[in-house]
Amino acid sequence: MTAPGPASPSGTSPRPRSRTVFAAAHVVADPRADTTPDGPAALDWDATLAFRHHLWAHGLGVAEAMDTAQRGMGLDWPRAAELIRRTAAEARTVGGLLACGIGTDQLPPSGATLADVRAAYEEQLAVAEDAGARPVLMASRQLAALGAGPDAYRDLYGHLLRQTSRPVILHWLGPMFDPALAGYWGGGDLDAATETLLGIVADHPGAVDGVKVSLLDASREVRLRRRLAAVGADARTSGKEEGAGVRCYTGDDFHYPELIAGDAHGFSDALLGVFDPLAPLAAEALCRLDAGDPAGFRAVLDPTLPLARHLFAPPTRCYKTGVVLLAWLAGHQSHFTMVGGLQSARSLPHLRRAHELGAALGLFPDPDLAAAKMRALLAVHGCEEAGSL
Which of 296-301's residues contact partners 24+ apart within 8 Å by CB, and which partners? Predict the structure, then answer.
């Protein structure tokens, strides 16, 4: 199946110069597949890959097979592996920037050992590297479930980082995005977890491109990125590495304009799920930043915050439902059906408000059609009248 006329720019926008930016991309389910929430994911490959080209056409990188693609919430590892391979092949045709999530989700939810977790990471790492993609070492539910201390994290990540063929992005996803990741890096204290993470980076600076942090805590992210910059500076001074140092990729969908804009001490790059629906506006804002206009950058992105904070409202892990709704309303796919039936994860009032906020931002190439789709969705659920919600 093919997506009906995705909304893409008339030409291809240049890749941003001042920041490295990835949009974590959603997947398009096959609505005709006879499957179940617990069964293998069935994807509409044409529409899924067309959406990646939409992001590349706006100059954004694609973060593939990440949380936004429903990893751990419907997208199983065999389909994720195929997605990585297919997207990598498409990226080569257009020179698209690509990073791919690798984790341990081929393991059962519980009962894994540290050796199992290491082997699972190695299996997925090989898939990403064989595809030529930059790996993102995603936080592992199975590792968190072990309740291991900081030394186990240092040993495991050290083992993986010593064998990577290119620098990777480390991934710190807070429990608001995935409750199963509480206590990651070996304990519940965030300051101690930060020290463990920074120790891993300092021990392997040439193997780490950056850290993607999604804690929805802007001040903590700013402190982390300053420490990461210092780690990069120390590595260059000691002669261990050449280059720009260790990046901080914001995954903060509540505070991204200020974090990307930065301050006198530095800025965050970005790996954001919210840039999936906001690609055109993100591209416009980044062009202004490249032109030396940080105020213009903020003028474009600050008005998107009400939509972002609505989409990522608790339970934050259900934000994918709003993202897919907006993709349907914008014409990137022909239906509002999700892998694992996740289209039911948000209430009708929530979805209606997402449409209102998206329309106010001009996200829909055909606003009338988007409004008609929204009315039809409400009607199916017995809410034909606007006042009935």
Answer: 297/257, 297/260, 297/261, 298/257, 298/258, 298/261, 301/256, 301/257, 301/260
pTM for the full predicted model: 0.93
How far, in Å, CA of 63 to CA of 233, rounded?
27
**3-state DSSP call for residue 137?**
strand
Instruction: Please give the pLDDT value at position 238.
Output: 42
Residues 64 and 87: beta-carbon distance below 8 Å: yes
Q: How far apart are CA 185 and CA 104, in angstroms?
A: 16
SS3 140: coil
CB-CB contact of 276 with 334 (8 Å): no
**% of the chain with per-residue pLDDT over 70:** 92
pLDDT digits (tens, 9 = 90+) for 21-36: 999 999 999 999 999 8
Q: Which long-range contacts (CB under 8 A, 24 or more apart) does 232-235 make?
A: 232/205, 234/202, 234/205, 235/202, 235/205, 235/206
Residue 266 three-state SS: strand
Summarize pLDDT for 262-316 with one digit per residue, the tens: 999 999 999 999 999 999 999 999 999 999 999 999 999 999 999 999 999 999 9
Alpha helices in the chain (DSSP H): 45-57, 77-94, 114-130, 141-145, 150-161, 190-203, 218-237, 256-261, 279-290, 294-301, 305-311, 319-329, 348-360, 367-380
Instruction: Read off the amino acid at residue 6.
Output: P
**pLDDT higher than 70, residue 389:** no
Query: How far is the C-alpha of 171 from the C-alpha of 150, rounded, in Å?
Result: 16
Q: 131 near 91, Cβ under 8 Å?
A: no
- Euclidean distance between the first and the last CA atom of the chain, given in angstroms as a whole number: 34
Contact 131, 85 (CB under 8 A): yes
Facing residues of 22 across strands?
Answer: 61, 271
Q: Tell me what pLDDT residue 234 has.
A: 59
Q: Which of 120, 97, 98 is nearest to 108 (CA)?
A: 120
